[in-house]
Amino acid sequence: MTDAPLETLNGVARLNHLGVIRVQGEDAVKFLQGQLTQDFALLKPSEARLAAFCSAKGRMQASFIGLSPGGNEILLVCSRDILAPTLKRLSMFVIRAKAKLTDATDEMALYGLAGDAALAFFAASAPLWARSDAGAAHVVKLSPADATPRALWLAPAAEPAPRGQPMSLALWQWGEVRSGVATITAPIVEAFVPQMLNYESVGGVNFKKGCYPGQEVVARSQFRGTLKRRGYLGHSDMAPAAGQEIFLAGSDQPAGIVAQAASAPSGGFDFIASLQTSAAQGGSLQLGAPGGTPVQLQALPYQLLEDI
Length: 308
What we know:
The protein is α+β, with helices and mostly antiparallel strands. The chain folds into 2 domains: 6-179, Probable tRNA modification gtpase trme, domain 1 (Gyrase A, domain 2, 2-Layer Sandwich); 187-298, Elongation Factor Tu (Ef-tu), domain 3, CATH 2.40.30.160. Helices cover 14% and strands 34% of the residues. The chain has helices at 28-33, 83-91, 116-119, 169-179, 215-223, 277-280; strands at residues 11-14, 18-24, 49-54, 60-67, 73-79, 100-103, 108-114, 131-134, 137-145, 148-156, 229-236, 245-248, 254-263, 269-276, 285-287, 293-298. The strands form 3 sheets. A 6-stranded antiparallel β-barrel has the order 11-14-13-12-15-16. The chain has a 5-stranded antiparallel sheet with strand order 1-7-10-9-8. The protein has a 5-stranded antiparallel sheet with strand order 3-4-5-2-6, covered by helices on one side. A hairpin with a 5-residue loop joins strand 13 (254-263) and strand 14. The longest helix has 11 residues, at 169-179.
């Protein structure tokens, strides 16, 4: 993919690296309301939600795109490599709630839509995380990759695939990085408070909802001015990996961690990293070790919220 032109981020990609958790029952919404960082009680049919599942210390154990197909049911899309342990952790909290959690991955088909394929479902003015239905399929508007529209398509496995020219998973994953919205995967479980990946700025945290695990830590980080790490976009000539450390030149202490990375069509590698704001604002950054491959920071495709 390294020689592909930038405009090839256009088409349809099968997303086999994602999975789906189904939450069903009379208390499905109430249960999730007490576990995740977003408000599912106010979820409308025209909306989806970005949300995190945190530990008691406020560290992200999983991230989801959630929607309700109707009735007492919520579908949560997450990285497939953490689905089983996440399902187990969440199920531990059900106790007496009338809610059942199951792995619905094999029952669903997931596709990523970019460019013209995404524009077929949403006007440019549609808000982030808007939802549109096409028959039995649910389509969610995602954060764009630079200026390229993107969407998530979710439907029962028997449904026909969405229309559009085929696109590789590798190219889709590069677009995920360029969107600046990181997905929690196994190497970074419990590495970040949501704000360390800018989740409060991309619709992933609701500060007005009720309690959930880690809420006090997340709220304190936001309102007491203790945000010392943020999410940034970076580029390097060496392939980064999720969980890899980044160093400030002249220091043997890591200044940040790579959250998500992908090969860039124009060469090299792009990634999302959580960095100390002081390190990001000055000095040379190096990947993997002191004196490692130089890192160039790039502008985020969205504004950070300074005040909630």
